[in-house]
Design a protein that fits this description.
The structure holds two protein chains of two kinds.
Chain A (H helix, E strand, L loop, with lengths): L1 H22 L3 H21 L3 H25 L12 H18 L11 H16 L5 H9 L1 H22 L13
Helix pairs in contact in A: 1-2, 2-3, 6-7
Chain B lengths: L4 H24 L8 H19 L1 H7 L2 H24 L15 H32 L7
Helix pairs in contact in B: 1-2, 2-3, 2-5, 4-5
The chains are: A mainly alpha, B mainly alpha.
Chain lengths: ~180, ~140
């Protein structure tokens, strides 16, 4: 009973925050609400017994992304433009994408289904990790060793993304104010 | 924000050491508790971004120069890939950590995991700092 109440409370707050973000005109306020949304997501991940993901969500979503968005606002503008006339095309794109995503979930196994592929592989990992690694955290062993190539790829993606941002945004030398010397 | 003394003392001077220490804990305790390189890197990066927010980008760049950040981002990936290459030189496959220790495969696995997690952490924290620097360097946060 208590568990269900917490579930409903967190998910309800998530939905409420999402609606508030959409209605917010002041972009700084919207950025703050996005941070709150991330914190609620982190709580939700903790409820789902995924402390690793909760960590990441709290640090990336609530912390770093909020700062990045605020820094972006400091370069651009802090108020959203008022939309005057109704536009059909964006709504159609959003509805269509949403419908395709929901259609995609129909093929996924049910939540907690013991026959789901992830649970079959997962059980094998849980059996093998104590023998092969002698460490209690199977997640680290899976990410680092069994899925070491994926993690290598992800690290490279992080570097590439960072390089992309630097190429686009970093101040070039000629942008800097020149010091006048006699 | 440098004029606001309470922010400077409470958030940066008091909290910052603990944030960085917690990041190191998450980094090196990842085998036993939740966490690992990615989480630790993000927490470490967030801590340094907090420092930059409170004391200004120039002060932050004085502590950690730009070339250090940009090299660190690449060095992290190099550490990760390097572990794989060393495993190959020792007669194993790419990223096969078991061969890293000649006597005990389990020790080899531990060594490999700690090193690659370190690589991930270094890259992630450096990229976070670099992106913040690129964004803040252009806007009103730069002073």
């Amino acid at each position: 009973m208590f568990q269900q109440t917490v579930d409903i409370l967190v998910l309800g707050l998530l939905a409420a925050t999402a609606l508030a973000v959409v209605r917010m005109r002041t972009l700084i306020g919207a950025a703050m609400l996005m941070g709150i949304y991330s914190f609620l997501s982190a709580s939700w991940m903790l409820i789902l017994d995924a402390p690793d993901v909760a960590f990441t969500e709290a640090a990336v979503g609530a912390g770093v992304s909020t700062i990045f968005v605020l820094a972006t606002l400091s370069i651009t503008t802090i108020r959203a433009k008022r939309q005057t006339k109704f536009q059909f095309a964006p709504l159609a794109v959003v509805v269509l994408t949403g419908a395709v995503l929901i259609y995609g979930t129909l093929d996924m196994p049910h939540f907690g289904d013991p026959e789901a592929p992830v649970h079959r592989v997962g059980n094998r990992y849980i059996k093998r990790v104590p023998e092969e690694f002698k460490i209690p955290n199977a997640v680290t062993a899976v990410l680092g060793s069994y899925r070491g190539f994926d993690t290598f790829g992800e690290t490279t993606v992080v570097l590439t993304a960072g390089l992309g941002v630097l190429c686009l945004l970093r101040k070039r030398r000629e942008d800097e104010p020149k010091v006048v010397t006699e | 924000m440098r004029e606001v003394k309470i922010l400077r003392v409470v958030s940066a001077k008091t909290l910052l050491p603990f944030i960085l220490l917690f990041a190191l804990y998450v980094q090196f305790h990842g085998d036993f508790g939740p966490g690992g390189g990615f989480q630790a890197g993000v927490i470490f990066g967030a801590g340094l971004i907090l420092h930059a927010l409170v004391f200004g980008l120039n002060e932050s760049r004085r502590v950690i120069p730009e070339w250090v950040i940009e090299s660190a981002a690449a060095v992290g990936v190099l550490i990760y890939g390097g572990v794989g290459v060393v495993a190959m030189l020792k007669g194993g496959k790419f990223l096969e950590y078991g061969v890293l220790d000649a006597h005990d495969r389990v020790h080899g696995q531990h060594t490999g995991l700690i090193l690659i997690e370190l690589g991930v952490g270094v890259t992630v924290s450096a990229v976070m700092l670099a992106i913040y620097g690129a964004l803040a360097g252009r806007g009103r946060l730069s002073t």
